[in-house]
Amino acid sequence: MEILAYILIYALVFAGGASVGSFLNVVAYRLPAGLSLVSPPSHCPKCNHRLGSTENIPVFGWLRLRGRCRWCRTPISPRYPSVEALTGILFCAVYWVFGFSSLGWGYCLLLSWLLALSLIDWDTMTLPDELTRSGLVLGLLFQAFLGWQAGNVAMGLISAIASGVLGIWLFDAIRIIGSLVIGKNAMGGGDPKLAAMIGVWLGWQYLLVTVFLACLLGSLTGLVAVCLGNIGRRQAIPFGPFLAAGAVLSLFWGDKIVTAYKSIFFPLL
Which long-range contacts (CB under 8 A, 24 or more apart) does 66-75 make? Predict the structure, then answer.
C-alpha cells in the first residue's frame, strides 16, 4: 500500500507540474509577442480551432493527437509536451528532496520562472523584465517568509538583497570586460537581472556555483556547436538557459559542489 501511495503522490505532483508546464508554453509564446496570457484559450495557430478538454491534457493530449491538429492536421511541435514533461519531472525532483514544505513550494515557483525565461531567451535572445523583476520580487518575499519562520526577517532580506546585488555587479563586470576583449557586446542586458534573481532565491554561494556551471555548460555547448558547424565562431547564443541550468544544478547539488570545492582547495578549514 505504501508503494501505491507513493506512486499516486508522484503521479499527482507530475500532473501538477505538467499543467504548469503547459501554461509556461503559453507564456513563452505570448509574452514576447505582447499577447494576452489568458485570452483567447489554447487553439491551433493554423486553423484557430479551440482545443477541447481531452486535446489540452498535458503530454497525453499531444500523444493522443499523434502530434497533429485534429482538424487541419498541422504538425504540433514536440517542444510542447517536452516542456510539460520536463516541468513535471522537475516538480517531482523538488518533492523528492524538499517534500511538501515551504522550500518545496518556493522552489517549484523558481523553476517555473527559470523555465519560462529559458524558453523565451532561446527563442528571442531576450529576457523580459516582466519576468526577471517579478521573479526577483517573489524571491525577496520567499526569503522574508523563510526569515519569518526562522524568527529573523531582516537578516534573510539583507542576505537576499546582497546576493542579488552581487549577481548584477558580477555580470556587469563580465559584460564590460568581455565587450572590451571581443570588441562588441559580450552579454545581453537581461543576464545580470536574471543573475540577481537567482542570487536572491539561492544566496551568494549558490549564485557563484550557478555562474561557474553556466559558463562551463555554455562554453562546452558553444564549442560543440561550432565544431558541428551549427553556429559561426562569433555568433551569439542565449546565455539565459545556461544560467537557468546552472541554478537547477545548484539547487539540487549545490551543497555537494561547495563541500567538494572546499575539501579540495581549503582542506584545513
Answer: 69/44, 71/44, 71/47, 72/44, 72/46, 72/47, 74/44, 74/45, 74/46, 74/47
